[in-house]
Structures are given as C-alpha cells and as structure tokens.
Write a structure and sequence with these properties.
about 170 residues, alpha/beta, five-stranded mixed sheet, 6 helices
Length: about 170
C-alpha cells in the first residue's frame, strides 16, 4: 500500500513539474503577451493495465488545458511494430477525449525510443505546425517506465529531436 501511495505521489509530482515546464515553454516571458499556439503529441504506452487509466487521465488533463489555437495528436504504442497515430493534429478537444477514452491495454514490449522517434518525425512533418505554431512543438511521453525492444538508439532519437526542434516531456 505504501509503495502504491509513493508511486502515486511521484507521478503527481512529475505531472506538476511537467505542467510547469510545458506551460513555461508555451507562454511568453512573464505573461506580458498571450502565449503562442503549440502543436504537440501525446505519446501513450498501452502495455500496462495498472497504469493505462492514469496515463489516459494525464493525457486528458493536457488536452483540457489546450488553448483555442493549440493542436494535439495522439500516438499509442505497444511495441516496435505497433506504433500508431490514433488521432492526427486537431484543436478539437472532444475528438481527442474520445480517442483517449477508447484506448485499451494491449500486450507488448514498449519500444519507447521508437515511439518518440516516429512521433517526432510525424510532428516535424506537419506543414501547418510551422505555420500555426511557428515551430513550437513538443511531445509528451506518458509511459510506465519500461523501454524494451526499440530499433532506434538513444543517439538517433536525440539527434532527430535536436534537428527538428522538438521538446520532449516525460511522465
């Protein structure tokens, strides 16, 4: 029981930090001007029954905090062969909520690096991101911690993220 409570507190502390950093990345300095739109992807690990409900709740918190011009896409992953964009970029919170609500647990070995790499490629390839979000783009990885079976190496992922200017926030 104590381990469950510590895990829950750790997730909440991590979430608070992520919201702080994500909000800071999305807003102008000191709130003097309205924040610019951001385009970001939720990258969600669908392999663990014990954490998927929490991951969906966290994703929903992010979607609900979107501004009117923010756009989000949702990627689910279970292994290297099953990384899927289940909702492309949209500002429609109801569409995003439906996609999150319909996620379910699937067996697999979570290929976290592959999911980040492919989601970053997808985000960087969106022409309207450059136009609307002025290049402001990020990924929010929501996973239970295991990183097994990735084809891409960490160096490949970091190189792509730097090249494309994509920030990654991990919960």
């Amino acid at each position: 029981m104590k381990a469950d409570m510590n895990s829950h507190l750790h997730r909440m502390a991590s979430l608070s930090l992520i919201f702080f950093l994500f909000g800071a990345a999305c807003s102008e300095s000191r709130g003097e001007a309205p924040s610019k739109p951001i385009a970001y992807g939720l990258v969600i690990d669908n392999t663990d029954r014990g954490s998927l409900d929490d991951e969906i709740a966290i994703g929903t918190l992010f979607v609900n905090s979107n501004g009117p011009a923010d756009e989000t896409f949702v990627t689910k992953f279970t292994n290297s062969d099953d990384i899927t964009i289940v909702q492309d970029l949209t500002a429609q919170k109801a569409m995003l909520a439906d996609v999150l609500d319909n996620m379910f647990v699937e067996s697999g070995s979570p290929a976290v690096l592959d999911a980040i790499y492919l989601a970053a490629q997808h985000l960087a390839g969106q022409e309207k991101v450059s136009r609307l979000a002025q290049g402001r783009r990020a990924l929010v990885l929501i996973a239970h911690g295991a990183a097994i079976g990735s084809y891409y190496r960490i160096d490949d992922v970091l190189s792509l993220l730097r090249e494309k200017g994509v920030m990654v926030y991990v919960i």
